[in-house]
Amino acid sequence: VGMRVLVGVKRVVDYAVKVRVRPDKTGVITEGVQHSMNPFDEIALEEAVKLKEKKSATEVVAFSMGGPKCQEVLRTALAKGADKAIHVEIPDADASKLEPLHVARALRKIIENDKFDAVFLGKQAIDDDANQTGSLLAGMLDWPQALYASKVEPDGKSLKVTREIDGGLDTIKVTLPAILSADLRLNEPRYATLPNIMKAKKKPLEKKTAKDLGIDLTPQTKVVEVSEPPVRQAGGFVDDVPTLIAKLKEKGFIKA
Fold first, then answer.
1. N or C: less crowded end of the chain, CB within 10 Å?
2. 62-71 pLDDT per residue, tens
3. Closest listed residue to residue 130, CA positions, set 108, 102, 107, 109
4. What is the arithmetic mean of pLDDT over 101-119?
């Protein structure tokens, strides 16, 4: 019997958008800004769909937690090959305060209510860069985890995963059920074709609330301030090396 894979897909400000900080410094401007599926989650989804195409997985279920507009990324996930979708819908006002811990709690409840063999997530979301959900979920479920995957090979009741680490590549074997997080070089996500976008409209999208799952969304952290990075100083040109050395001495970078 093949794997049932649950894939987390987060709705984030599109990676091509220049993010602007709110005037009151409470966060970034999201109104009227293009949003899309978190790029690392797209890679995680692609890997799950590929496993299904190779008959290593039997079903791919996309999951998202957030405001009503998260349905857009779930429909995209269905158009890219997921079989069905689960949306844990919460009001937009609360969505901005969501933390990886809340998402991990929701995923745990979904898994407790319905059996899955693996959870695929992006290694991090490009909005908060937290890189925590996968590890928290693995801890809650007591499942093995394979993070920063750059290659995934199904092997019976386990996955052989090549991970990108600072010193090179690390290959591990995790017994299913397991948690996997996708790194950039794992694959190249497909585009959703028009026929598949049309088919996605007929695929099931189940809605749940935090109350249905019995999870507490009380924030554990508070954003004190969001600010722009300091503006970089303009550089200058010099004609030759002696002038460069003289300039560096003048600015105190080289002791005379």
1. N
2. 999 999 999 9
3. 102
4. 95
Would you give the distance in Å from CA 250 to the centre of its chain?
47
Which residue has 């952290």 as its token pair? 221
Cα–Cα distance between 144 and 102 in angstroms, integer?
A: 20
Other CB atoms within a 10 A radius of the CB of residue 140 amount to 17
For 34-72, the pLDDT digits (tens) are 999 999 999 999 999 999 999 999 999 999 999 999 999
CB 111 within 8 A of CB 179: no
Q: Which amino acid would we find at residue 148?
A: Y
H-helix or E-strand spanning residue 253: none
Indicate if the pLDDT at residue 231 is higher than 90: no
User: How would you class 10 by CB atoms within 10 Å of its CB: exposed for 0-12, middle for 13-18, buried for 19 or more?
Assistant: buried
Residue 39 and residue 237 in contact, taking contact as beta carbons nearer than 8 Å: no
